[in-house]
Write a structure and sequence with these properties.
By secondary structure, the protein is mostly helical. About 70% of the residues lie in helices and about 0% in strands. The protein is built from 16 helices and two strands. Helix 6 runs antiparallel to helix 16 and helix 7 packs parallel to helix 16.
Length: about 400
Amino acid sequence: MALNNLTFLIWGKKIIGPIHKVKFNHLCLIMLTLAICVQRLTIAVGNVFYAFAIVFFIIDTCQRYRSGEKLFLSKQIKRYFLVYVFFALMILPSAIFSLNPEYSIAKYIDYFVLRFLVLIMLVFLKIDNEAIKKALIFFIAFMAIDGLVTLAERVITQAPRAQGLGDGWLRHASIVATIFPASIIFWISRRKDIRHKNWMLFCAVCIVFGAIASGTRSSWVGILSVMPFVLYQGAKWSPKKFFALVTILICIGGAIVATPQLHQRATSIVNITTDRSNGDRVEAWKSAVVMVQEKPVIGYGILQGGKVYLQSYRTAADTQGLGHFHNIYVQTAVDSGILGFIGLITFMVYSLWMFRRWDSPYILMGFCAWVGFIVVGFFDYTWGMSAAVKTLWFVTGCSLRLYDDA
């Protein structure tokens, strides 16, 4: 077949016809969505999709610029970018004056530029809101399948924990806490333009089952942390669905209590004595306080604090010898000092404030995504997880694109 007759159908639309009419904006969104979906399953393939998304975005942006189109950003997004720049600048000294500058600067570029391109692409891409909704729903459906696979793995293998489609329990926890609220919010929303709303409830249940089967307690806490906001708004939008959600939560909670293994896992969340996963974290945090006091302004350098801790500050009470502090806030304070900590908290607070108007489901999605990410951050250094951060930027970007679609 000649290249100029090449045709593909994706999401029911012809996106590639004659080569001079290639819709690079659609290709960019498709590649980006696939990258977000498979990044935990296979980092290599996810990065390939991500690279294609960046290439298609650059081509589409150049075509728009050559055609004389002016790129426009709302004041709200401009302010958000400025706060992000403030955050990045507050972290920068710890990268430059790190104990290992070459390593820390490379990590800095990865953290604050390469991963942030997810949000840049979603914000600048010229594409209709319906395509953005489809991308978000596709990701939710993928995570539901992941949940079912995780549950099946747990049942079949009878192992205490299951991985599902990928590895990294804590990475999975952050992704679940970030995307789960969107599935429930789609379902309880009063909007009539959202297709397959009842399937969104099924997806939400599958995601929860996957979180339970994985045995990752931070995902449980992350899911529970967003439910008060979802239930509060759900009671306004649909009292019937509100009571249905409460009933489902009670049933799931009852099942956990009635299952000894799950009940023990749940109660261990607050156990910092016999549960060394918790206890060792607390011991590391105690040492982190001393480390911050000794280098309070810019810290030891991005991802250098854990190495210094093992060399000079680890106590016998830390039985595992943690390589990092399993906490965004502690890790940032140690690695980047008070400056970096202030930057992080400022950006997180502003992100929540920006999505404070909950009358639109898409705004509530953005707010709850940040709540879930922030809560899981108390259990692990999720800012260092590429898959978790890209997921956060993906949901944030979709929410910003749909912000005014009330």
